[in-house]
Design goal:
The complex is a heterodimer of chains A (667) and B (304). With 667 residues, chain A is α+β, with helices and mostly antiparallel strands. In chain A, 14% of the residues lie in helices and 31% in strands. In chain A, the strands form eight sheets. Chain A has a seven-stranded mixed sheet, with helices on one face. A seven-stranded mixed sheet of chain A has the order 13-14-15-16-21-17-22, with no helix packed on it. In chain A, strands 26, 29, 30, 32, 37 and 39 form a six-stranded mixed sheet that branches. In chain A, helix 1 crosses helix 2 and helix 8 packs parallel to helix 9. The longest helix of chain A is centred in the N-terminal third of the chain and has 17 residues. The radius of gyration of chain B is 23 Å and the shape is elongated. Chain B starts with 7 loop residues before the first helix and ends with a helix. The chains are: A alpha+beta (667), B mainly alpha (304). At the A-B interface, helix 8, helix 9 and helix 10 of A face helix 1, helix 2, helix 9, helix 11 and helix 15 of B.
């Protein structure tokens, strides 16, 4: 986008329209309109353009009658200006007011962000809106741009909200989790009222461009009419900072700072609360703020809990107090501190449901209270060890209203799109499910119901909580315990591993490889990047004979030679960001793989290599196996790398042979 | 929320971040270790590994990496800032001070130096050098375009330790006006009570009492006003009411440290040294730190 700013600067000296003027328009949004900071009487519509526009928002009760206009004074404009000193000087001369606009941090240069605050609205009312550039309508007039204001604070209304965490990869699982939720909600016939994102919405470092492609574009149809209430994850923390509210995360969201949506003013967008009818939501920043009870955030939390008069309290933040998914709450500081410092405050304030992410798994607890110990134990902190399943008439039960230390349910929902996994079992969890998915929560009167929907649209868990009458719990000294979890066999053992669910293909199937057949190379230099493969042939994988799938048929191999040598170069942009590198291969009989000259995988070849390879076991190529490359992080480089494979037949007169490899990267 | 320009600490965050989407700190440490075995030690990789060690609460390993990072890059400010904090966590106050002083010499302008001054203020306050700590806070707040929320709180705590309650109240009021933070407002009310500004504080306390579901902390504040004005009966009645509410809220098996320290404070104001001391010990056991227990300890000493 740099050209926009540069071109605009050039135009400034020629055009009376000034910088970022009419002629620079592209007629499309750099970020499509989305809604933020809902209250019973107001809403904020945010959008971006890649050139300056005359921002206008019209709204009304029907799509055909957008008869209200948001005054210009209620629209905040932010801009991402050039950093070139000469261009800045031109701007200073021609359009000094641009320099006074609030800045977008790390957004592509030349972008304008508009935040239109619509006030004076009726509660729980649907409004349609349109975004314009002067008189020219930018949003389609198709009735899909609408929002619904919150119900009056303190009045009982049912609520349905979507909960998703750790989703921002921009890949298929994220997409599937989103669409499966949409389909399920449609099937249920009850739309969402808003949604809550538990952080890590823009991998890898929460950069502006990552927000755009991995959050806004992924969730666009949902975001135009539903408010996403966010909490910052550690990946957004790569570029945004909670203590001063600077970074792409804070550019993307408009969150309450002065109690605009209910709750006590925080003075920061990093943590906040809002009300929906008689439900009080509390968002905390578990990533980069002081988590101690004497810290600012914990003090605010106490004040907020003192003040709320809701029937329900739902808290959400990124780092889970209890997990053994891809993270371990018995070992990691942020998780331990949220458990030891923040949970006592939340529980003494009467919290009902705690939603977290960070750990890429679905974990749902029993009804618990007081589990602050490290390591986490279940004895004496479980109040109800049942399934909590309302479908079988066994939801958890609490007293009506907000009673301190009367139990809460913990949900870790970090399974929204990135690679999932598990380290063990937290003894408080009733359900641990290693699948991609998300959670829809319904609260209606005195009843809460949570539904976990996986990426295929299947309901994988339902839990319920009923707050009625006076409920006194006995703390269970020997509560039900989840079965022990058995770690799968380690990589490198006798079976292939599970491939990652989301990956890039570094060397595609049926690629052209450089190969040597009929003789052996000298030593091991052929496995190195700098090796000159002069005289080697080129051929398309798979290589082999007597297999129909072989594309490079080695019809001279049988009886003459038992090994071939293959090389393929591939590029990696940032080696540091690669989490796993793995070989998918369908093979007969054995192989040794090398990355930049180092052996990283071996299968079916007992010992030795090249012409000295021994003890090659017979193996039929019936399916692909996945082999993570051992210690790849020591050998992989940013830039060009080479994967080399030597394929071996068990004997010279073997009746078949196949090497069919491709390479996967997970970042 | 967008009060500040990017600071040095923000620059630290803008440096390369976590390696992989799903990696635990242990795994990231492994990856970074392997990486450095392959490409050699680099300041940025050492700093990143130190961040992971800190997440695992392994301060000695973090300190080791940060020192090596500084050795490799003598102007690497994020490493100095983190090392100073790690040294403070390890109880090495003199070293922490030396480290942050070096960082301040390397910093460019006063706006870059401001967050470093706040780290230095924390180190000085931990060393009970409150006058110097306050000077650093004042310079930090003057040198930035407003300051971070935390800074107002840190400065007021130091001012209170020096008995400069009127200044603390004024600074907090300014912070509240700038940010709207309810915590700064409440701290301001506390400082006003400490400063003897009872009339103004009373109005705010009454307003909060009428709005709150849980009233004990506000009853405590009103009690302090009553006691400060010599209205002993009213003060004791508020303290009794506050204790009754806290008793209802207190978990019998896992009491919250903040509630314990507040109840202990109430007992101490009532002159019940035994119960106050019991709550002090229980609060410590529940994880209360010195800052949380400061009022309780002062009141306990006065009651003795």
């Amino acid at each position: 986008m740099a050209w926009v700013a540069t071109a605009a600067v050039a135009r400034a000296s020629e055009s009376s329209h000034g910088l970022f003027g009419q002629e620079g328009r592209t007629n499309h949004f750099a970020r499509a309109p989305y809604v933020q900071l809902a209250t019973p009487s107001s809403m904020v519509v945010v959008w971006r353009t890649d050139a300056e526009t005359e921002p206008v928002v019209r709204y009304g009760r029907s799509p055909e009658a957008l008869d209200q206009l948001v005054p210009l004074s209620s629209i905040v404009t932010r801009v991402s200006l050039t950093t070139n000193k000469a261009e800045l000087k031109v701007i200073e001369e021609k359009r000094p007011e641009l320099l006074r606009l609030p800045k977008l941090h790390s957004a592509p240069m030349g972008l304008f962000q508009y935040e239109a605050r619509i006030t004076g609205l009726l509660p729980e009312t649907r409004y349609y809106y349109g975004v314009f550039d002067g008189k020219r309508r930018l949003t389609e007039a198709d009735g899909t741009y609408y929002f619904r204001t919150h119900p009056p604070v303190g009045e009982e209304r049912r609520a349905r909200f979507w909960v998703v965490g750790d989703s921002g990869t921009g890949r298929e699982p994220q997409h599937n989790v989103h669409t499966s939720m949409i389909d399920w909600v449609k099937q249920e016939g009850r739309p969402l009222d808003f949604y809550v994102h538990l952080g890590d919405m823009a991998y890898m470092r929460g950069k502006d461009v990552e927000f755009q492609t991995r959050f806004f574009e992924m969730y666009e149809p949902t975001l135009r009419s539903l408010v996403c209430w966010p909490t910052m994850g550690n990946h957004e923390g790569g570029t945004s900072k909670g203590t001063n509210g600077v970074g792409p995360y804070y550019d993307a969201y408009v969150c309450p700072t002065r109690g605009e949506a209910g709750g006590v003013p925080t003075g920061t967008e990093a943590y906040y609360s809002f009300d929906y009818g008689r439900i009080h939501f509390i968002c905390l920043d578990s990533h980069d703020l002081d988590r101690k009870p004497t810290g600012l955030m914990a003090r605010w939390l106490k004040l907020d809990l003192e003040r709320t008069k809701a029937d329900w309290i739902v808290a959400f933040f990124h780092h889970p107090p209890y997990t053994k998914g891809t993270h371990d709450s018995d070992r990691e500081k942020q998780l331990i501190e949220m458990r030891q410092h923040i949970m006592p405050i939340l529980e003494s304030g009467g919290v009902d449901l705690v939603l977290t992410g960070h750990s890429h798994v679905y974990e749902r607890s029993m009804l618990i209270d007081g589990a602050y110990a490290t390591p986490t134990v279940a004895e004496g902190v479980v109040l109800d060890d049942g399934e909590g399943d309302p479908r079988t008439g066994e939801p958890y039960r609490k007293s009506r209203g907000l009673e301190p230390n009367n139990g809460n349910i913990q949900v870790v929902a970090g399974h929204g799109g990135t690679t999932i996994g598990r380290k063990g079992t937290i003894p408080l969890m009733r359900k641990t499910i290693v699948e991609h998915g998300s959670v829809v929560v319904d609260i209606d009167g005195d009843t809460l119901r949570g539904t976990m929907i996986n990426k295929f649209g299947e309901v994988r868990d339902v839990f319920g909580l009923v707050k009625r009458g006076q409920v006194v719990h006995q703390r269970l000294m020997t509560p039900w315990q989840p079965p022990p979890w058995k770690k799968p066999r380690a990589v490198g053992e006798d079976v292939s591993a599970e491939p990652p669910e989301d990956f890039f293909v570094a060397i595609p199937k049926n690629s052209e490889w450089t190969y040597l057949a009929g003789s052996h190379p000298e030593g091991a230099k052929w496995t190195e990047l700098k090796f000159d493969a002069k005289g080697w042939k080129k051929g398309t994988a798979p290589f082999g004979y007597s297999y129909r799938e072989a594309r490079t048929v080695l019809d001279d191999m049988k009886g003459k030679y038992s090994a071939i040598y293959m090389r393929h170069e591939f590029e990696v942009e940032q080696a540091d960001y690669i989490a796993e590198l793995g070989l998918m291969i369908n093979y007969d009989d054995g192989f040794i793989a090398y990355l930049n000259g180092k052996e990283v995988a071996r299968k079916g070849v007992g010992k030795g290599a090249g012409k000295d390879a021994q003890q090659v076991k017979s193996h039929d190529a019936t399916k692909y196996g996945y082999f993570p490359l051992k210690d790849f992080e020591k050998h992989l480089k940013s830039g060009t790398n080479v994967l080399a494979i030597e394929g071996h037949n068990a004997s010279l007169d073997s009746h078949d042979f196949l090497m069919d490899p491709y390479l996967l990267i997970e970042d | 929320m967008r009060l500040l320009p990017a600071t040095i600490l923000a620059a630290a965050l803008l440096a390369p971040g976590i390696l992989a989407a799903h990696d635990s700190p242990e795994h990231v440490v492994e990856i970074l270790t392997a990486r450095m075995e392959a490409v050699g030690e680099r300041a940025d990789l050492l700093w990143r590994r130190a961040t992971e060690y800190r997440a695992l609460r392994n301060h000695p390993a973090a300190a080791r990496d940060l020192k090596r990072a500084i050795k490799l890059r003598k102007d690497y400010l994020p490493a100095y800032v983190d090392l100073s904090r790690v040294q403070l966590a390890l109880g090495q106050r003199r070293r922490a001070l030396w480290t942050i002083d070096r960082a301040m010499r390397l910093a460019g302008g006063e706006s870059d130096r401001a967050p470093l001054r706040m780290v230095k203020a924390e180190v000085l306050a931990e060393s009970s050098r409150f006058d110097e700590a306050l000077r650093e806070c004042d310079l930090a707040l003057a040198g930035s375009s407003g300051g971070e929320l935390d800074w107002f709180l840190t400065r007021s705590q130091i001012q209170c330790r020096l008995g400069r309650f009127n200044e603390a109240a004024a600074g907090l009021r300014r912070g509240f006006e700038l940010t709207g933070s309810a915590v700064l407002e409440v701290e301001c009310i506390d400082a006003m009570i400490d400063a003897g500004q009872f009339a103004e504080a009373r109005g705010k306390v009454e307003a909060a009492l009428s709005e709150s579901r849980y009233r004990s902390s506000w009853l405590l504040r009103r009690a302090r006003i009553h006691l400060g004005q010599g209205e002993m009966t009213e003060g004791h009645r508020d303290l009794a009411d506050a204790i009754a509410e806290m008793n209802r809220r207190m978990s019998p098996t896992h009491p919250e440290s903040g509630l314990l320290s507040e109840r202990g404070f109430a007992y101490a104001l009532l002159g019940d040294v035994g119960l106050a001391k019991r709550d002090l010990l229980a609060a410590r056991k529940s994880g209360a730190d010195a800052a949380m227990l400061r009022r309780l300890k002062l009141a306990l000493n006065a009651a003795r």
